[in-house]
Write a structure and sequence with these properties.
The chain is about 45% helix and about 15% strand. By secondary structure, the chain is α/β, with parallel strands linked by helices. It has a single domain (about 5-10, about 15-184), classed as Rossmann fold (3-Layer(aba) Sandwich), CATH 3.40.50. Strands 1, 2, 3, 4, 5 and 6 form a six-stranded parallel β-sheet that branches. Helix 1 links the parallel strand 1 and strand 2.
């Protein structure tokens, strides 16, 4: 079972990229989470699309999602909503609209996220739901993971050092993997 994991942060020291690395580590046997790198995805521009088509970085990611059994979105929260860099990436991947069904349709999707703040990315995770609905994906609602106080959850190297979050993350990924397996 192959899951594409996407961190919605470009920051080298990103807590969300650290959370994705930890998810990869704790994934159950038989479930491989492969991280996607969204550096290099340009801003969506309909004129560029008309003149040059879909950028190669975007086409690669589209095909990886289309081949995957599921997608794990690891999202920061910006101003009470989702991060523009990842929304921009998903918007590009939804072009042309005739490809949405093939790339996203019925694909299981999980949502987790980390913030140094108190809210654990609840608002951001909720803000992704209309996007997931628009793309016709299958959201996993069986468990949830909201990581708050991230500067204490990860060490300076980005390793997950909080035992409770490690247990919750392990539970989440196991539940999501079972959901993906049921959806195949
Ligand atoms: C934030 N941050 C933030 N955090 C939060 O919990 N709720 C919020 O609404 C916001 N809003 C917000 C807006 C902008 C523009 C920035 C840059 C930041 C803080 C954010 O959670 C923090 O920067 C994280 O470290 C971002 O995730 P990464 O890069 O660590 O993965």
């Amino acid at each position: 079972m192959n899951v594409v994991g996407i961190s919605g942060s470009l920051r080298r020291g990103s807590f969300n990229s650290a959370l994705l690395r930890a998810a990869i580590e704790v994934a159950p046997e038989g479930c491989v989470i492969e991280p996607a790198d969204i550096h290099g995805v340009p801003l969506y521009d309909g004129d560029v699309e008309s003149a040059q088509g879909i950028p190669a970085t975007v086409q690669d990611l589209k095909e990886r999602i289309a081949r995957a059994d599921g997608v794990l979105i690891v999202t920061p929260e910006y101003n009470g909503a989702l991060p523009g860099v990842l929304k921009n990436t998903i918007d590009w991947c939804s072009r042309p609209a005739t490809d949405i069904e093939r790339v996203f349709g019925d694909r299981p999707v999980g949502l987790i996220g980390a913030t140094p703040g108190m809210g654990g990315t609840r608002l951001s995770q909720n803000a992704w739901l209309p996007v997931i609905r628009a793309l016709g994906m299958q959201p996993f609602f069986g468990k949830s993971l909201y990581v708050s106080g991230a500067s204490k959850v990860f060490d300076a190297q980005g390793a997950l050092v909080d035992a409770t979050i490690r247990r919750l993350l392990t539970d989440y990924v196991a539940g999501f993997a079972a959901f993906v397996a049921r959806s195949r």
